[in-house]
Amino acid sequence: MQLIVRGQTAPTPPSATPPPAGTTVPAAPLKKGNFETEFKMKSGSYLGFGQVNLGMGEIGFKVVVFCQNKEKKKGTLEFRIDRPKGKKSRRIGTLQIPYTGDTTYALKLVGNPKYSNGIHDLYLVAKGNPFSITSITFVQDY
Predict the structure, then answer these.
(1) Lowest mean pLDDT among 16-20, 51-55, 93-97
(2) Using alpha carbons only, what angle is made at residue 140 by residues 87 and 121, rounded to the nearest 5 degrees?
């Protein structure tokens, strides 16, 4: 399975040269939402997974999200197959992303999503307010 990402910014690499001897370097402050793996999603960005076997539609998804935006227009995460947008893209499910404050929420998309049988490229497309995805898990939905 290949990860396809659009709308992400790459972190700047650390400096290759150490600081001069005798100088102190302050530690970087720990920010809220600073996770080891964090995909910052803004409207129109997406994560894609190539050639995912969705079986007979019995696959579900668990997504851990982080959102500090309190605006009325909430974010959504659309699950699409084959393409992230356009006529050949099919939406198989949608998750509403709530305001989470300082914590993360685990949200599940389960059931028998329409058109999700077989092997497809899977895209998680962000809409509305920005949020972060810290974990994605494929789960068997029985």
Answers:
(1) 16-20
(2) 25
- Tokens encoding 27: 């530690």
pLDDT band at residue 25 under the 50/70/90 scheme: very low
> 10 Å Cβ neighbour count for 18?
8
> Is the pTM of the predicted complex or chain greater than 0.90?
no
CB 81 within 8 A of CB 116: yes
